[in-house]
Amino acid sequence: MSMLRTKSIEQSLADADEPEYQLKKTLSAFDLVVFGVGVVIGAGIFTLTGRAAHNVAGPSIVLSFVIAAVCCALAAMCYAEFASSIPISGSAYTFSYASMGELVAWIVGWDLLLEMFLGASVVAQGWSSYLGTFLGQLGITLPAGISHGGKVDLPAVLLVLVLGVLVVLGIKESMRVNIALVGLKLFIVLFVIIAGIGFISSANYDPFIPPASVGDAKNGLTQPLLQAVLGIEPSVFGVGGIFAGAALVFFAYIGFDVVATTAEETRNPRRDLPIGILGSLAICTVLYCAVALVVTGMVSYDELPTDAALARAFEIHGQGWMATIIAAGAVAGLTTVVLTLMIGASRVMFAMSRDHLLPPVLAKVHPTFRTPWVITVIVTGVTALIAGFTPVGVLEEMVNIGTLSAFVLVSVGVIVLRRTRPELPRAFRVPWVPVLPAAAAVVCFYLMLNLPVETWLRFLVWLAIGFAIYFGYSRSHSRVGLAAQGQERKR
């Protein structure tokens, strides 16, 4: 059986219509935009802005956000073309199966699970941290052993369990909660922008691009792979700092790809999915740039806190009540990120199980709620264990490398599918193929090379485990492979 066998788009669409695997179509373009904003705006805007401005870019971090958005938009357009052409659950996994074959699809699906499982766990712990800060400002202190940083992060576990129940109840029900929380989160973000304008000092923008300097060189396993190979010393501030900042804040945009996992639950996927993917990315870009401009104007970049920068910037100006409101908004905001990542993980596993690359019993759909409840229970359990009992801070960059690797393969897949299926109806088409998708692949791979050596080693171990599962189980149980064998026997 060939490891490069593809699953035809027609077969994928037919599988999605089978009663035992059929999901309820309830989502609109508005739902998808809210879904995308809900997962993208989270830990990045509440924490990453201050760290990136303080360490590498200064006030010019605004330009870093613009550059990162352009790079992310390249990959987003590739996702939009695939999602409008192949409106099937599984996102990049399904796209790769149709364009580059089963083995590549397995690798992409395996990487997406890495992104979403660890991403949801990491953000759940971040949620627990903000909850502790918020409760502390109200005079409530949780026991150290069962709060963030303790032996068991009980708040993070409880959050994941509650959201797991919500995901089982239904995608529309999850979206209602998501819409409410995203609305609150957007209010908080706009509150930061509007309230913060009054505390801006133009002196904090001078210099807008701080003079370039050599950063702290890293050694050993913590050194970026590209730097380790070429012996390049990292540069901070100056023009180089703007691009270094872009490489850092790029990860604040990760999440728009999760929109594509809801394809089978969208009423008009060929029209609504591109709107959801590109619309959510555009909204988040504007908000990121505005927040970065306000925060660096409120506090000089060299004095800007690197942890919980938004809330602490207001504390510096003696506005503790505003900091409390922002902390509460962060709790709501991070809730939506965990929710959407859990939905994304369950839909990717659902697609892989329906193709029998994972045991098909996992893809069982609840007869009432029409959701993949068995998979959701697994996703909830694994995420809760990681969030509650694992010091996942060291694993955050694993989320990045898993996501970027999927971005690279999706970008290449657009070029491949344009050659192999030029007649395929495409509601959205990436312009300037193959130049633009090739540029997206190169940019994403460049960012992968800037991740630490230790992250690459962990990623290789994760891939090795994935290959062992594929060759030990998936390859011989593949629905596509068994169907091909049956056709050969008939001949």
What's the short story on this structure?
The chain has 491 residues and is mostly helical.
Order of strands in the sheet with most strands: 1-2
Report the radius of gyration as a whole number of Å: 22 Å
User: Structural class given helices, strands, pairing?
Assistant: mainly alpha
Instruction: Give the end-to-end Cα distance, rounded to a whole number of Å.
Output: 16 Å
- Percentage of residues in strands: under 5%
User: Helix content range of the residues, please?
Assistant: 55-70%
Report the average pLDDT across residues.
Answer: 83
Describe the largest sheet: 2 strands, antiparallel
Q: Quickly count the helices.
A: 18
General description of the model:
This protein is 68% helix and 1% strand. With 491 residues, it is mainly alpha-helical. The chain has a two-stranded antiparallel ribbon. Helix 6 crosses helix 14 and helix 8 (171-197) packs parallel to helix 11 (269-298). It starts with 8 loop residues before the first helix and ends with a helix. The mean pLDDT is 83.
In terms of topology, how is this protein built?
Elements (H helix, E strand, L loop, with lengths): L8 H8 L12 H12 L2 H15 L3 H25 L6 H8 L2 H36 L16 H16 L1 H27 L15 E2 L10 H6 L4 E2 L1 H12 L19 H30 L10 H8 L3 H35 L18 H17 L6 H25 L14 H15 L3 H25 L1 H12 L1
Antiparallel strand pairs: 1-2
Kindly list the characteristics that best describe this protein:
491 residues; mainly alpha
